[in-house]
Write a structure and sequence with these properties.
The structure holds 2 protein chains of 2 kinds. Helices cover about 45% and strands about 0% of the residues of chain A. Chain A is mainly α. In chain A, helix 2 (about 10-25) packs parallel to helix 14 (about 290-300), helix 11 (about 200-210) packs antiparallel against helix 12 and helix 12 runs parallel beside helix 14 (about 290-300). Chain B is mainly alpha-helical. Chain B contains 17 helices and no strands. In chain B, helix 5 (about 100-110) runs antiparallel to helix 6 (about 120-130) and helix 16 (about 290-305) runs antiparallel to helix 17. The termini of chain B are far apart. Classes of the chains: A mainly alpha, B mainly alpha. Chains A and B meet through helix 1, helix 2, helix 3 and helix 11 of A and helix 2, helix 4, helix 6, helix 8 and helix 10 of B.
């Protein structure tokens, strides 16, 4: 029945599966042409005629499904996938979700298309709820498709995210709510994409985030006084790397992350592997694709050291001398997975495909 | 009991809904040649979804479409389009325009499965807003959710909205104080308290009392991170964000820092290996040249006391050293306890 609910979020399956396979395959192409074609056909059916992608064919478009669909398309690495994206319609869709100071709400009914009340935010679907996930999903898509410079899209977001930072130091889904790892990642990643990281207090965010690592369990939790969950390997671990990038390579200690990356690997490998295959939240939980994908992505970051100069300083994404820059738990390389990019999970062992897709799509339109 | 009743009710409801649509009024799921991750749908799920896709295609807004949404929601509460169609029906059909109270009752009945469903909370918010006042059953329902999971993020965010919408500040203050007493480590309750207190009240009026509140809980349990973070938040975060003259706020915050230092030193000497008092002291000491050495010394203590964050404290120590370069000579000296 958990999967039944995902019936309206099917691109997520594709995203979690393609990325997980990608990380395990260490650069090899795991999906064959036929499988890729099936995925492409399905995503084509999920694309809404008025822009964006839906959770399943025939439904309304949704920002999270759009994000999952676009990231899957990038992960497929083939022009047949890139070609399906309707870029002009996508921009219109994103602008419809965006709330600006001058967005008019006509006769606000229950089913009004525009119902947000916070300038600088996005709804997650038309007539839908408004929170930080939507901001990240929309900006990541805009960045990949080279639409992020559109002024009406960018307007006010930095200030909105700033207002979502709490007294705890982390970031909440709306102003005054509780600081939460998922929203902290979404908020800070969005600021990175906009190049506006000075809008929040990075020191406080870092302090809150590092304090989410639990001394006994060794993994991370998502909020103060809550329980460990392996998916936070990524939400917190990637946040740590993003902060390192924002601080221009000064957010690490002698190359190691500021959290205990060996402990996180230990927790994942020793406590979170299901006998049936796949990764789990914590012992006694059952496996699911979401945890498999994010625990693994977090593992990927934890297995690596900060390489700001090599990876980000000049936007070069070549991974030279991978082994020298790794930090393996118990020096065991057998559990090595592909290095992922903290902003979008796309693996970075070759020149980034973000630019490849935006160029391809731009040329075709 | 409610789940069993709902289960039986669901069977009946689905049969009735199916009966309202002709066998030709269907639209099948899109299936590529070989589905990548096929969901194992039950027969009733398939049928209802086939009807729903058809209804979407013809953009139907009607009483039978309204009943159909209830069936879809019962099978997949995450179907955001079904919730949207439901709202369209409530807005435009004369028979439903005034049925706001009935819609709230429906939401109350299905609540038991909806704790983590974004669409449910969003819909509820819109309906209650249309209702225009606090529904009589609202608190009872929130208490039920609270019993199930006292940290349910949706529930707390909804509660914030509700308080603001209906001006429930005073009553909610009493409730959150009780909730913190019930479970002092419920960070959601502390976060909600911050919202109630600091959202619209002047810092100089409540800063001191709220610090005393936090301190009382720290003394009960010096390992309660929620209380410590609340305390630090009042000192470092609130002055610039809170209502009131920023300069006056800042000067009051300095007074709080001086008091905080004494409080933390007391805890440090009476409670073994407490990382929170030390972390607070680092914050206080690292701001000034005169106390930078103390900040560094405590970072060194924290490397032992808070081992999992060793890299963070090493990094912090180096950062302080860099900002006060003349203190680097102390790097090699032994750490001293004050």
């Amino acid at each position: 029945s958990w999967y039944g609910r995902l019936d309206s979020g099917q691109p997520w399956f594709l995203f979690w599966i393609t990325n997980t396979l990608d990380m395990l395959a260490m650069g090899e192409d795991v999906l064959d042409i036929k499988e890729k074609k099936n995925i492409i056909d399905y995503l084509k059916a999920c694309q809404h005629p008025e822009g964006g992608f839906s959770g399943s064919p025939f439904m309304d478009a949704h920002a999270a499904s759009t994000y999952a669909a676009i990231c899957t398309i990038v992960a497929l690495q083939c022009p047949e996938a890139y070609v399906i994206v309707d870029r002009p319609k996508m921009l219109q869709y994103l602008l419809r979700l965006k709330h600006n100071k001058d967005t008019k709400i006509f006769a606000p009914q229950l089913c009004s298309k525009a119902r947000t009340t916070i300038p600088g935010s996005f709804q997650i679907h038309e007539n839908g709820e408004n929170d930080l996930r939507a901001v990240y999903c929309c900006l990541a898509v805009a960045d990949i498709l080279n639409l992020i410079d559109e002024p009406k899209l960018r307007e006010g977001i930095g200030d909105f995210i700033s207002s979502c930072q709490t007294y705890e130091g982390g970031i909440a889904c709306v102003p005054y709510s509780e600081a939460h790892a998922g929203y902290s990642y979404c908020g800070f990643a969005s600021l990175m994409l906009l190049n506006e990281t000075e809008k929040i207090n990075i020191d406080k965010l870092l302090e809150w985030s590092m304090n989410r690592q639990l001394a006994k369990e060794a993994g991370f939790c998502g909020r103060i006084n809550k329980l460990v969950d392996s998916c936070y390997n990524f939400w917190q671990g990637a946040l740590s790397e993003l902060i390192d990038i924002a601080l221009k390579g000064k957010g690490n200690y002698k190359g190691e992350w500021l959290y205990n990356q060996y402990a996180v690997q230990g927790y994942t490998l020793l406590c979170c592997q299901s006998k049936k295959g796949g990764l789990i939240d914590k012992p006694k939980k059952s496996t699911d694709m979401y945890h498999t994908c994010y625990s693994l992505a977090g593992l990927s970051i934890a297995q690596s050291k900060s390489m700001y100069q090599e990876l980000y300083a000049d936007h070069k994404y070549e991974l030279k001398n991978a082994e020298a820059n790794s930090a393996m738990f118990a020096k065991d390389y057998s559990s090595r997975v592909s290095r992922v990019h903290p902003l979008s999970l796309i693996h970075i062992s070759e020149p980034t495909r973000r630019y490849a897709i935006s160029y391809a799509v731009f040329c075709l339109k | 009991y409610q789940r069993r009743v709902h289960g039986d009710y669901q069977e009946i409801m689905i049969k009735e809904v199916e009966g309202e649509w002709a066998p030709t009024e269907r639209l099948a799921q899109f299936e590529p040649e070989a589905p990548i991750a096929p969901i194992d749908y039950s027969e009733k799920f398939k049928t209802i979804m086939d009807i729903f896709r058809y209804a979407l295609k013809i953009d139907e807004v009607s009483l039978r479409a309204y009943r159909l949404t209830a069936a879809v929601i019962s099978l997949n509460s995450g179907n955001y389009t079904a919730w949207y169609v439901r709202r369209k029906c409530l807005d435009s059909l004369p028979e439903l325009k005034d049925k706001v109270k009935e819609e709230i009752e429906y939401l109350d009945i299905i609540a038991h499965d909806m704790a983590k469903v974004y669409q449910y909370w969003h819909h509820r918010r819109l309906i209650v807003q249309k209702f225009g006042s606090l529904p009589p059953n609202e608190y009872a329902l929130l208490e039920k959710f609270h019993e199930e999971d006292d940290k349910n993020y949706h529930m707390w965010t909804y509660r914030m909205w509700m308080t603001e919408q209906f001006h429930l500040w005073d009553a909610e203050y009493k409730r959150v104080t009780a909730k913190i007493e019930e479970n002092p480590k419920n960070n959601s309750a502390w976060s909600y308290r911050y919202f109630l207190q600091f959202h619209h009240t002047e810092y100089i009026k409540i800063g001191s009392a709220e610090i005393d509140f936090a301190k009382s809980y720290i003394l009960k349990d010096p390992n309660n991170e929620s209380a410590w973070v609340y305390y630090k938040g009042i000192v470092y975060f609130s002055p610039s964000k809170c209502v009131g003259d920023k300069a006056a706020n800042a000067s009051l915050a300095e007074k709080f820092k001086a008091e905080g230092e004494l409080f933390c030193l007391k805890i440090r000497s009476s409670v073994t290996d407490n990382r929170f008092c030390r972390s607070f002291l680092v914050d206080i000491y690292k701001e000034k040249k005169e106390t930078a050495k103390s900040a560094i010394d405590i970072c060194i203590e924290l490397i032992e006391v808070d081992k999992i964050r060793k890299n963070y404290w090493l990094w912090m120590k180096d950062k302080i050293l860099l900002s006060f370069p003349e203190k680097q000579q102390y790097e090699k000296s032994q750490h001293q306890y004050y």
